[in-house]
Hints:
Chain A has one helix spanning about 100; strands spanning about 5, 10-15, 20-25, 30-40, 40-50, 55, 65-70, 75-80, 85-95, 105, 110-115. Chain A contains one helix and eleven strands; from the N terminus they run E-E-E-E-E-E-E-E-E-H-E-E. In chain B, a hairpin with a 5-residue loop joins strand 4 (about 30-35) and strand 5. Chain B starts with a strand and ends with a strand.
Amino acid sequence: KAGVTQTPRYLIKTRGQQVTLSCSPISGHRSVSWYQQTPGQGLQFLFEYFSETQRNKGNFPGRFSGRQFSNSRSEMNVSTLELGDSALYLCASSKSGGARTGELFFGEGSRLTVL
Amino acid sequence: SQQGEEDPQALSIQEGENATMNCSYKTSINNLQWYRQNSGRGLVHLILIRSNEREKHSGRLRVTLDTSKKSSSLLITASRAADTASYFCATDENSGAGSYQLTFGKGTKLSVIP
């Protein structure tokens, strides 16, 4: 069974640009969550999607957005990039929502560097 | 928000020794999970303990949960160099309107010296 796949693995952008990250969950998993990981703030919850609907949202500005497609694949977008957006962005999938029901399966992450 | 807080932040031990990491959290929980992360990689789920459980084992891992003290501990016995990683606890935090998010602590960085 294929794991969670995130693309791209590494990318470099400049301030003001926008970026789109992609996540393909494990087959059969309908919930996709996104996390931002930085050395200073640790793992911060961005949002969770379930059956194409945003079910939960963390405390991030509106520049951070996401969506989920009918095949459960998810994308997140960051517009008007700032230096502080440099981070490892992790996607995680679960069958119905890991927080209450069980474990999350993580991808290897997309490392974004903003110059 | 950071629900769980791990202690210590960093731990260095010799191969074969036991490693104990602690986690404290703030609000009531349904379950607490531990994850492991090798440097710059994704997180891997280790173990889940529910609020009505006090102890759980999985191979060389032993997790305890004390809901009265809002704390948990992860014990890794007979550590190996391959156990070198960061370990995170995570709790299901109620974010309102019946929805929950998995909230992580800042982690304990474990180094096992061969």
